[in-house]
Amino acid sequence: MKVEGSCHCGNITYDAEINPDYVVICHCTDCQTFSSAPYRVSVVNVRPEDFRLQGTPKTYVKTGGSGRKVLVAFCGDCGSALYSTSAEVARGFNLRIGAIKQRRELVPKSQGFCRSAVSWAMNIDGIRKIPDPAQS
C-alpha cells in the first residue's frame, strides 16, 4: 500500500510503500513517554528502498530495552513524531501512523509490551464519547 506522510507544519514529508499487516500498537514505557499517550501505533519494517523522505528531521538516539541504539526522528519545528530506525544501519523504518495521511485505513494487527499498558487502554468502548464541536 502506498502512503504519504508529513509533520504537522509540513516542513517534512515522505511517501512509502508499506504492508498494512505490519501495523502495531506498542505499550512500552518509552513509546508512552515519546507520544505523551498511553501507547503509540506504527507501521513497522518498512524497507529503506520503499521510504522516500523530503526534508531533514531532528533525531535523537535512545537505547532500547534490548540494548540496541534506536534513532528516533521528529520535526524540529512542530515536534511531530515521524519514524524510528536502527541507529547503526537503517534496515527498516517504523513509521508513526499519526503522520500518515491514510491512517484511518491502517488497523493495528498486533500489540506489544502489554505488561506496561495503562489499565484502561485495552478497552475504551465504555468511555463516554463527547460530540465534536460545531464547525464555524
Secondary-structure blueprint:
Elements: E1 2-6, E2 13-17, E3 23-26, H1 29-35, E4 40-46, E5 51-54, E6 58-63, E7 69-74, E8 81-86, E9 93-96, E10 110-112
Parallel strand pairs: 3-10
Antiparallel strand pairs: 1-2, 2-5, 3-4, 4-9, 6-7, 7-8, 8-9
- The helix-strand sequence is EEEHEEEEEEE
Structural class: mainly beta
Gross morphology is globular
User: Ends: how far apart?
Assistant: 35 Å
Number of helices: 1
- The stretches of 5 or more residues where confidence is low (pLDDT under 50) are none
Q: What is the rounded Rg?
A: 15 Å
Count every beta strand, where a strand is a DSSP E run of 2 or more residues: 10
**What average pLDDT do the residues reach?**
94
Strand order of the largest sheet: 6-7-8-9-4-3-10
> What percent strand?
35-45%
Main sheet summary: 7 strands, mixed
- Level of helix content? under 10%
Task: Give a verbal description of the structure.
The protein is mainly β and about 140 residues long. It has one helix at about 30-35; strands spanning about 1-5, 15, 25, 40-45, 50-55, 60-65, 70-75, 80-85, 95, 110. The strands form two sheets. It has a seven-stranded mixed sheet. Strands 1-2-5 form a three-stranded antiparallel sheet, with no helix packed on it. Strand 1 and strand 2 form a beta hairpin. It is globular, with a radius of gyration of 15 Å. The N and C termini lie far apart (about 35 Å). The model has no long low-confidence stretch (mean pLDDT about 95).
